[in-house]
Amino acid sequence: MRSFFRYLIDRQISITPVELNQKVIADFLAWLKTQPGTNALNQGTRYAQAKAVLIELQSRGVAGGTRKIFPRNPFPGSQATIVGEKALTAGERSRVAEALRQDIVAFHKGTFAAGESQGLVVHILALALRTGLNPSSMLELSRDCLKPHPLIPNMMLLQAFKRRGNGTHLKSLRFSESRANPTSIPMDGVGLLTLILKRTDNLVGSAPSHCKDRIWLHVTEGGLGCGKVTAITADALTARTRAFVQRHDLRADDGTSLRLNLSRLRKTMADRVFAISDGDLLVSAAIMGHQPQVAETHYLACTDEMRRNATFVGEALIDTYRGVVPDASTDHVIPIRTLETTPVGSCKDSLSGEKAPKDGSHCMDFFSCFSCKSYAIVGAKKDLHRLFSFYWFLDIERETARSREWRERFMVIMTLIDAFTRDKFDGGLVAQAKEAARAEPTAFWRSYQIGGEHDGA
After folding, report:
1. Taking the chain, what is the end-to-end CA distance rounded to the nearest angstrom?
2. CA distances, 382 to each of 418, 435, 436 (Å)
């Protein structure tokens, strides 16, 4: 409520809770948008926080008005300003894993000089690399989080609590083959957790009630609480992760200092699962513990490898129009030829292309264009207008499709279109084409339907 109170003081408004009304909320929003050093994202956050309290006061009969006095979305598009973390590349992941291995070995052999809490954070990072757990779920792991696997004897289940879903999430962890060897240091998830549980067992009795059941216990090494037992906090995790990167001088592929956190490790895990499952979105979502829409929107980025394997990208035939013959040493050798116009862009050969029926008829399987080597798209207004007309058609069908599988497929294609056009073409041109197609799609996509009547077809 701090922002709301500051608004009342700044505007010299004196009201009682029962006098809360739509005019006050509208004025509060106008005041938020004028605050220096803020943007739409944190303005929206401050509004949402105040709104939550005010709505609760309404429900208790303390504040006046109803929920209708609060605009539904006063900061449209604010989430688009968020730049999410990117998954580690294969090289970055390999360097992080080797640094973690060195620290874990030193920690359990008694030669680790960076401190107990730093050693715990090393184990947190190693476990995050294997499980993809969120920071809150990781830090709040209970001491009984390891459960027997009901089917596979050499595996156990890691039970974590997921706040946003308000439920538990189970992940399978395999035992190391060397787990029975007392001289070895197991590097698998079960082995790491078991060692930490044994190491911190003597601290449980001295831990305060709020963290007595946590795994990541340690004795505070300095500051006001020096000598007291506590658990690793989010701030400590951030600071010690940064110290880990500095201690090993970890570098990104471009030579800059590596940015490392649990969000990047989670996205790295999601990308690996997606690749191992051969691009199965449902499998990836199930293993990572979220809905398919969340997986493809927030976790599965369009990586360089995906771009190389996506004909959609490889066939951006800008050079074709310039008469430039591609280097014969590259994988994508694009012959210079006249492109055929299609409802979703252009095609090198709609009669005998890769996905064409090859029976003398033109290919009409537009949903396969994005995995076809004959598909092409250039940054011309007409091509982009056709592509985004198809995009908005998918958006309509996504709302009315009866099958979840179809809705997911439409969403994946839309996300790929957004990612590709954003990467390859001028942002202003793409935005204009997208909006123009939304307002006035091509005649083909205005009239085309998968099946059944619906609004907007």
Report:
1. 45
2. 17, 13, 11
Q: What digits encode the pLDDT tens for the residues 29-88?
A: 999 989 888 888 888 888 989 999 999 999 999 998 888 899 877 877 665 555 556 788
Task: Please tell me the pTM assigned to this model.
Answer: 0.49
Residue 358 CA to residue 38 CA, distance in Å, equals 58
DSSP string covering 331-362, please?
S------PPEEETTEEES-TTTSTTS--SSSP
- pLDDT, residue 322, reads 38
- Structure-token match 């030193």, residue found: 106
Q: What angle do helix axes 116-131 and 189-200 make, rounded to 10 degrees?
A: 150
**161 three-state secondary structure:** strand
- Structure token pair of residue 284: 């990836």
Q: What pLDDT is attached to residue 251?
A: 94
pLDDT in tens, 202-249: 999 999 998 999 999 999 887 777 889 999 999 899 999 999 999 999
- Write out the two tokens for 334: 């694009």
Residues in the chain: 457
**What does the H/E/C string look like for 255-268?**
CCECCCCHHHHHHH
The mean pLDDT value for 86-94 works out to 85
Please answer whether residues 31 and 7 qualify as being in contact, where contact means their C-beta atoms are separated by less than 8 angstroms: yes
CB 37 within 8 A of CB 43: no
Q: Strand pairing partners for 173?
A: 156
On the CB side of 155, how many CA atoms lie within 13 Å of its CA? 11
Q: What are phi and psi of 61, to 5 degrees?
A: 80, 15
How far is residue 23 CA from its own chain's centroid? 37
Q: What single string gives the DSSP state of each residue in 188-252?
A: SHHHHHHHHHHHHGGGGGGS-GGGTTBS-EEE--SSTTTT-EEE--HHHHHHHHHHHHHHHT-B-
Q: Which DSSP string do the residues of 422-445 spell out, in sequence order?
A: HHHS-HHHHHHHHHHHHHS--HHH
